Structures are given as structure tokens and as C-alpha cells.
UniProtKB/TrEMBL annotation:
Protein name: Sporulation histidine kinase inhibitor Sda
Coiled coil segments of this chain: none
Single GO MF descriptor: protein kinase inhibitor activity
InterPro entries assigned to the protein according to its UniProt record, in alphabetical order: Sda (IPR015064), Sda_sf (IPR036916)
Length: 45
């Protein structure tokens, strides 16, 4: 994950959510976003 730019990480996160990928993978991305202090607005269902 450290090789991804912040922008790329954000794009990957959004794509993973849109494609409803594995919840564990999305959580891993969320943790990395939090580690980098990047806040993503949660879309309401």
C-alpha cells in the first residue's frame, strides 16, 4: 500500500466499494486511509 499515492488509494477505495469487493479488502483500504489521515465521506445507502 505504501507505493500507492493518496489519490490512487482514494480511487481504489471508491472502485472497491462500487464493485462490492470483499469486505476485508475494503476494510484494509479504510485502515490505510485512516493511517494517512485521509477522510472519505460515507455515502448513505
Amino acid at each position: 500500500m505504501k507505493y500507492l499515492s493518496d489519490q490512487m488509494l482514494i480511487e481504489v477505495y471508491h472502485r472497491a466499494v462500487d464493485l462490492q469487493l470483499d469486505a476485508a479488502f475494503i476494510e484494509l483500504l479504510r485502515l490505510e486511509l485512516n493511517n494517512r489521515n485521509i477522510r472519505i465521506a460515507q455515502a448513505s445507502a
